[in-house]
């Protein structure tokens, strides 16, 4: 079990700390370190052929926040150093800067992957990782279905290659969803056969939709669980310096789980190709109100839409300045013709309308996450070398735009628009950002400490864990003693005392990767006025009892 602690003084004051005698160590700046509230936006500009465009200047861009123009506080044209002689920048262009350090997270979504698709992609991914710039740090994680970090951030390309080999040997359960879908369709067809004497022009009974609802409900739960795990991972990246990108390797999560089954249901209950069972009104109370109208199928499917959850994940990624690249591992797909010896179940799945819905449903998740965060969706590709080259271009050539927003830590999401004034050019960038209050930033930094070992201890707190004691057969109690130097904390004077406050945030994670909710506690500190000068040279001891 691993734990991460973070503590900071929670004070809002304008005056400085009290004076101390000469022999006492000087106080450090009080409170959380103040960050200048600057919004940075990385912009990738391409021409009509998708090639990156450099040489643009500050005057070629217009930035708006929530629809209102904002002036640029900083502008840089970022490009990796060329091995050859440098060429002069075009007239009017700003001087180029080197790219910021890159943290790339590769997330292999085993619960939405077929093993053959995954291993084909991983073979090419290994070569791509080996060609990244030496200073780029890469981490490998999997969803199995819990979030598991297989290789923490490292620059060791050999360690990354070994981690890829480990992931190749893992089981992938993407086929479970395919089996569940087949079972739902089989149940629908069986119900149809048992409860009808004719195949053509006979209404479906309303109960025929029950297998579709059951499948869609279970599939939606799987999607929401997966998005929850990705949200935790994305949020944890916030505390890392430099640029952050996440490469999602998956066959795709359906934006509307079960939509293809409802499409098949509509085809089954409307085999004549008309607009629905004749003389049946949706939701009617007439003599045929117990029938399932084919026109209802599309409406029923939308009950299980997860589009808002995908938007929320993209908003989280934008808040953490994480660009998402979606790689659909299934590769090139198309509408296949049905073989004459296939059963009815297989032929239903191969209907063009059903296949089109299934493919677009999975690809929609990739395009949504990538488009909203300024990344790329890699679809219908078996040979990934070209797409990996384009990712490399994103990492090395872009424009860094910065502006000062008219608010500070309001905790709200704000919409970003970037316009390139030159005709024929296309800009990709994150569509929004969250103006985080101080506590939310501290939560993100605590999770970064937990997941990635990013250490930052400006208060110079000493920590010592005591002996574990069993509570019951499943739980243990671990005392953790913290020694907080009082001269690091600013104290506010009252009539008789000096008052201060420290807020502790505690995160833990077990070997399986599961993480209980982050816990926090406020620690009030009160020192009598006559003892304050002596106390400020001492430590405040606080014990945290963790139940694990």
Can you offer a commentary on this structure?
- The protein has 548 residues and is an alpha+beta fold.
- The protein has a six-stranded mixed sheet with strand order 9-8-7-11-13-14, with helices on both faces. The protein has a five-stranded mixed sheet with strand order 6-5-15-2-17. Strands 1, 22, 23 and 24 form a four-stranded antiparallel sheet that branches.
- The protein is built from twelve helices and 25 strands.
- The longest helix has 27 residues, at 210-236.
- Residues 8-35, 83-93, 273-289 and 336-342 have low confidence and may be disordered.
- The protein has helices at residues 115-130, 157-168, 174-194, 210-236, 259-268, 296-302, 307-319, 344-349, 352-373, 385-396, 438-452, 532-535, and strands at residues 2-9, 39-46, 61-65, 68-69, 74-79, 96-97, 102-109, 137-143, 147-154, 204-205, 243-250, 291-292, 322-328, 377-378, 397-403, 413-420, 426-428, 432-434, 462-465, 469-470, 476-485, 492-493, 497-509, 519-528, 539-547.
- It is 30% helix and 27% strand.
């Amino acid at each position: 079990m691993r734990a991460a602690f973070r503590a900071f003084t929670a004070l809002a004051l304008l005056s400085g700390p009290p004076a101390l005698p000469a022999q006492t160590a000087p106080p450090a700046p009080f409170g959380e370190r103040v960050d200048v509230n600057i919004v940075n936006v990385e912009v990738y500009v391409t021409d009509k052929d998708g090639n990156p465009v450099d040489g643009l200047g500050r005057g070629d861009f217009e930035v708006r926040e929530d629809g209102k123009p904002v002036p640029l506080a900083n502008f840089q044209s970022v490009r990796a150093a060329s091995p050859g002689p440098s060429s002069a920048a075009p007239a009017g262009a700003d001087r180029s800067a080197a790219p910021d350090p890159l943290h790339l997270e590769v997330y292999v979504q085993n619960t939405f992957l077929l093993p053959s698709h995954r291993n084909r992609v991983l073979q090419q991914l290994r070569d791509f990782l080996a060609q990244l710039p030496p200073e780029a740090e890469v981490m490998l994680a999997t969803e199995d279905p819990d979030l598991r970090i297989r290789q923490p951030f490292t620059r060791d390309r050999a360690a990354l290659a070994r981690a890829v080999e480990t992931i190749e040997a893992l089981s992938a359960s993407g086929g479970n969803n395919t089996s569940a879908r087949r079972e739902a369709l089989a149940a629908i067809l069986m119900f149809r056969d048992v409860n009808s004497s004719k195949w053509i022009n006979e209404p479906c009974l309303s109960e025929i939709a029950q297998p579709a609802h059951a499948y869609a409900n279970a599939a939606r739960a799987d999607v929401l669980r997966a998005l929850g795990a990705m949200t935790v991972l994305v949020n944890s990246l916030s505390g890392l310096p430099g640029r952050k990108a996440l490469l999602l390797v998956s066959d795709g999560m359906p934006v509307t789980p079960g939509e293809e089954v409802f499409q098949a249901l509509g085809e089954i209950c409307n085999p004549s190709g008309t607009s629905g069972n004749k003389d049946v009104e949706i939701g009617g109370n007439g003599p045929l109100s117990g029938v399932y109208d084919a026109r209802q199928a599309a409406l029923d499917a939308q009950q299980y839409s997860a589009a808002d959850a995908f938007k929320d994940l993209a908003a989280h990624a934008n808040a953490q300045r994480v660009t998402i690249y979606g790689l659909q591992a299934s590769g090139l797909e198309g509408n296949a013709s049905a073989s004459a010896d296939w059963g009815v179940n297989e032929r239903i799945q191969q209907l063009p309308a059903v296949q089109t819905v299934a493919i677009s449903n999975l690809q929609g998740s990739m395009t949504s996450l990538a488009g909203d965060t300024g990344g790329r969706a890699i679809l219908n590709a078996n040979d990934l070398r070209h797409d990996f080259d384009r990712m490399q271009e994103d990492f090395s050539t872009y424009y860094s735009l910065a502006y000062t927003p008219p608010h500070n830590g309001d905790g709200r999401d704000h919409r970003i628009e970037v316009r390139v004034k030159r005709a024929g050019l296309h800009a990709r960038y994150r569509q929004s950002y969250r103006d985080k209050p101080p506590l939310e930033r501290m939560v993100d930094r605590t999770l970064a400490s937990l997941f990635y070992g990013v250490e930052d201890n400006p208060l110079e707190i000493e920590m010592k864990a005591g002996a574990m004691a069993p509570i019951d057969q499943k739980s243990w109690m671990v005392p953790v003693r913290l020694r907080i130097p009082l001269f690091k904390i600013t104290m506010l004077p009252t009539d008789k005392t000096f008052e201060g406050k420290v807020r502790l945030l505690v995160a833990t994670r077990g070997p399986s990767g599961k993480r209980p909710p982050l816990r926090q506690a406020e620690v009030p500190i009160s020192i009598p006025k006559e003892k304050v000068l002596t106390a400020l040279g001492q430590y405040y001891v606080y014990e945290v009892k963790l139940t694990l």
